[in-house]
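Tutorial handout. Part one gives the primary structure; part two gives the three-dimensional structure as tokens.
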Amino acid sequence: MEDQERKQEDQKTNWNIRPYLAIGLTSFLVIIMSMSFFFLIYRYHGVTQLLDKLMLILQPIIIGLILAYLMTPIVNFEERHLLPLMKEKMKNQKKAEKLVRGLSVTGALVFVIVIIGVLLQMVIPELYRSINGMIGTLPRQVNSFMDWLSEYISSDSEISGYLEMGLTKGTEFFENWARTEFLPQTKNIIAGLTSGVIIAVKLLFNVVIGIIISIYVLMSKETFIGQSKKIVYAVFPGRQANAIIHTVHKSNEIFGGFISGKILDSLIIGLLCFGCLSVMKMPYTVLVSVIVGVTNVIPFFGPYLGAVPSAILIMLANPVKGLYFIIFIVVLQQIDGNIIGPKILGDSTGLSSFWVVFAILCFGGIFGIPGMIIGVPVFAVIFYIIRNILDYILKKKQLPRDSASYIKAEKLDIKTHKLIWLPEEEAEKKPGKQKKEKLEKEKK
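Part two.
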């Protein structure tokens, strides 16, 4: 009897302690998280400075990972063609695989360097000539424009008076600005140029280190993939781990399809622009084609960002050709948006036009130009994850997963967990006598 009473008392004691321990641990975690959140908000600038410093330290690794990711399709393509040949000639299969991997990585790196070198060799001399010519002819073009403007308004004394007054005030403002603001800031400008040169040298050094890191990553990419999967399966339960691995594969598919497709699309647009502008004998053909091709990498807003400065340059040289260029760019972007882009990209992101604009504005506002470029695939991954979570919840509740079913749904029946549509919609959703009668009436 005494032993039983002691066991009951021990059980009661244990049963009473556990809730208090759980409450205490939960309270402690809530306090820690609240303090961390408050610190993050209160010390926001310090956190951003820390993140900027961390990104600067990790810049070579980030560059290396990006280069490795971009060169992976080339390495895989070379391995598919070289590996069968080497396995036939070499008895040791592991040595054959290592040799093929080394040759593929070297070939991919040489291919990228050659492509970049050829493009620079083609573009830089033409850009130099275009910019040099623009610098030489721009003052003359501006003067001729001002002469034309003065001749046009010379007949109207009132307009010429307003223009003279505006030019006088503008000249005074410019002189005051140069005297009070620009000249005192020359030391800062020189210091900024010096720091810019230092940053450029550091960036070049980081690119070299990044290339070395990308070689190491590509040589052992299966090892890194295996280690990552091992960590995921060790930390998360089986179902969650499988979901994470599947999401990573889908993210790779979205990113790979979008980035490679967008680069190819921009290259085609740049070449088409160069060919058509050469036929039309437009000024600054190479410079404008490079601007249009590079800015086309940015979805939706990119063509307009490239067309505006290009149109201004051409209009300064020849206003009529500037108008022709605007018409040509509109036609070219329609061809790209309706024919070339869909053929190359397809539905790689799965986003509607609204969400594409939303992603570009949000990520562009936070991260600038890089955010505008990668914002669409990043948001596509987020959208995919949220959609899968919602589908899983709706499936557990035995509700339809397509959005069309909810457009005219009136309410949800709490008891049966089924949607209730309006009378006409309900008849359409559940074919029966009412729908047959309705169809017969429409036929009559």
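Part three, for discussion. The two ends are 89 Å apart (CA to CA). The mean pLDDT is 76.
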